[in-house]
Amino acid sequence: MKIASVIVDVPAKQTDKTFDYLIPEQWSDIIQPGTRVVIPFGPRNIQGFVTEIKSESDFNNLKAIIEPMDLEPVLNHELLNLGDWLTEHTLCFKISAYQVMLPAALKAKYEKKIKISSGAAVNDLAPILHPFFQKGRTLSWDEALQFGIVPALKKETENGLLEVHYEVKERIKKKKLKFVRPLLSAAELTAEIAKMTGRQVKQKEVLTYFVLYHEPVELKKLLSDLSISASTVKSLVEKKILIEEDMEVYRDPYLNRTFERTKPLPLSEAQKAAISPILHSIEKGEHEVFLLYGVTGSGKTEIYLQSIQNVIEKGQEAIVLVPEISLTPQMVNRFKGRFGDLVAVLHSGLSAGEKYDEWRKIHRGEVKVVVGARSAIFAPFENLGIIIIDEEHETSYKQEEMPRYHARDVAIERARNYNCSVVLGSATPSLESFARAQKKVYHLLTLPTRMNNQALPSVEIIDMREELREGNRSMFSRKLFEKLKERIERQEQSVLFLNKRGHSSFVMCRDCGYVMNCPNCDISLTYHRAGGQMKCHYCGYESLVPKRCPECSSEYIRYFGTGTQKVEDELGKILPEARVIRMDVDTTGRKGSHERLLKEFQEGKADILLGTQMIAKGLDFPNITLVGVLSADTMLHLPDFRSSEKTFQLLTQVSGRAGRHELPGEVIIQTYSPEHYSVELAGTQDYDLFYNREMMVRKTHRYPPFYYLSLITVSHEELLKAVKETEKIVAFIRSQLSNETVILGPSASPIPRINNRYRYQCLIKYKREPNLIRTLKTILDQYQKDTKSGLQVSIDVNPFILM
DNA sequence: AGCACGCCGACT
DNA sequence: GTCGGCGTGCTC
């Protein structure tokens, strides 16, 4: 009998290896590497992934696989190997690596149930258990706990009257619809019609229908189209003329939408020059990484589309990654418009079932292109021809939970496996990518000008300290106010952008400035409008907003939204005639409201669009001629070495929203630190200069791209333990790594306490450290093995945020 | 992660 | 003497 190596669904150090199982003869054709299986593991049944089929095992008494969960493997050979790569590079468990590659719907659900043994009767049981097992009922373990009857159950289990069953269930069912199709040929149907009596009018009608359309039809549709009842169909089914069948259908989120088909647009000279090396590498089937550096509005998307066109014509597939927030209908339209049904879309707005169905389209090879957010990088294609990452610099490509992967790294790894190219596109490339392009590791392609040579908007930086000195205490500079007024008179549109740290709101006392903090974590609570509650994002603590400030008893305690509410109020005072649409977490909470608000703005139902980060992306409306950034520097002073880079990218991004069409655009940036180079250079839209300046800073402070980083976070309930243990780790790492490597710590984490656990960290900066992964693994092994110390150690290789 | 096995304190 | 606390170690 064949043997399968299985990775079991238990994310723990001790089980992070394969377990061997016998493959029952009846499943031997189906069970292959990549198939999910149900296996007995200890006393229970759980899910596992087959990684290998072999004929021998080092173990003697192998158990057998209970059953496969798939008819086709869900992971192909390449993805199984990619799992190994992920495990190695992010130091995660194998099972976590496989799970992250699949839609959540494929994660198993476990149920523990108590059933009466065959041959035993309800009356044999202890009397208190009688009500729970009447009429063959089963009892779930949760219910057993609730009713406090576990000891009684245990006793009867030992007596052999009850049995414990461990069930592994699918999370989502495939959606099925009833279809009807003819069993006979058209000619035979005609003969049947002739045989029928005059009374069988409806049946004749149905058969006539099938003579004309000899195809399966959804039962519901047939009934309503011919306005007949189910009994008519039923009698034809009984006569074996028709047959009813269940057919799998997809939950298609874009089902009732039509996409205007587009044709490839003629390319500008610059675009031609940029696309030609990409097409060349597609043709040759070479692995290369391109950095497509093109200012906003320079036509990057058309380059993506035409590259993909070539890939499809070659019979290959394409993955396009887009940041979640810019995965707007506008973006989807462009791809669906060009490639129609060959496109699958994966983003967080879809339900688990919809995501699963989109995934299945890819898995079955029914689509050739997937457009999606970060996790779409794992799309189960078998013949990838290109991977495109738009807005390559976006931080959302880094996953902040285990496995902490960066989609860019995964993309390059997958592309290497398929010998295909990666295109990284950005108007403000990450320093890492641009540095690699400079070093010729990546192939740099530039689109220096906007389409049709549209001028970049003129940007003016306003020093808000100056405004204050001259007596203007409002949040609008006089200049911005003037310009806004002007736009309203000219019936043009403006976008106001509030650059707030974080996307959330907090609760603050307006008298003493006291901010409501989580009692368990050193972080402010987030205000949720629903129920007027404050919640902690890290530990889940909840409480109502107090009526009075706990510090000074003032009643002026109120929530500070993203600040947009306040801006809207003030706008109402100074420009009462302006129609404003506000977009923030509060107004876009519900599904689809994001889209709706943008549509209203596009239709000219408002003069001003006011919002946070989320409006910085993808907005491309012809009538926007003014962009105002209310506070450019709120992000600048965060304790993060990337804060300058982020500020520059964001300001440049927002500025690009203005004047993308015929009307020229203007940008006003208000700031308290106009002399800071990231603000100043965003003003002149000078990426190259910014790059040089920032590279010098990174070099002196030994940050990426000059050094790689790894971050170890240690947490414990006692502050002292956390510090001490971090100290130990620091010492150990020092002893293992080279002298050129910088090891910082122990230092308190930027969030020093989460869920009553103190957090200390150690930051490693290194250039070349072949021993690093091994050293980090040793540390993890140590702490994952012993769970009693109460210490938790987590490691982020190449962290994005140092938290 | 679960779960069983096992070795010590407070109860019928 | 037994029930049950959770410490320890295993799951092919």
UniProtKB/TrEMBL annotation:
- What GO molecular functions are on record for this protein? 3'-5' DNA helicase activity; ATP binding; ATP hydrolysis activity; DNA binding; zinc ion binding
Residue positions annotated to bind Zn(2+) 1 are 509, 512, 549, 552
UniProt KW Hydrolase keyword: yes
Top EC category: isomerase
Regarding protein family, the annotation reads: Belongs to the helicase family. PriA subfamily.
- Annotated residues that bind Zn(2+) 2 are located at 518, 521, 536, 539
What's the Enzyme Commission number for this chain?
Answer: 5.6.2.4
Keyword Isomerase on this protein?
Answer: yes
Show the GO cellular component annotation of the record: primosome complex
Q: How does it assemble?
A: Component of the replication restart primosome.
Please spell out the taxonomic lineage of the organism that makes this protein: Bacteria, Bacillati, Bacillota, Bacilli, Bacillales
InterPro entries in the record: DEAD/DEAH_box_helicase_dom, Helicase_ATP-bd, Helicase_C-like, P-loop_NTPase, PriA, PriA_3primeBD, PriA_3primeBD_sf, PriA_C
Q: Name one GO biological process term.
A: DNA recombination
Q: Which reaction does it catalyse?
A: ATP + H2O = ADP + phosphate + H(+); Couples ATP hydrolysis with the unwinding of duplex DNA by translocating in the 3'-5' direction
Which cofactor(s) are needed, names only?
Answer: Zn(2+)
Domain of life of the native organism: Bacteria
Q: SMART domains, per this entry? A: DEXDc, HELICc
Q: Which Gene3D superfamilies match?
A: P-loop containing nucleotide triphosphate hydrolases, PriA, 3(prime) DNA-binding domain
Please identify the protein, giving its name as recorded.
Answer: Replication restart protein PriA
Q: Which residues form a coiled coil?
A: none
Q: Where is the Helicase C-terminal domain?
A: 544-712
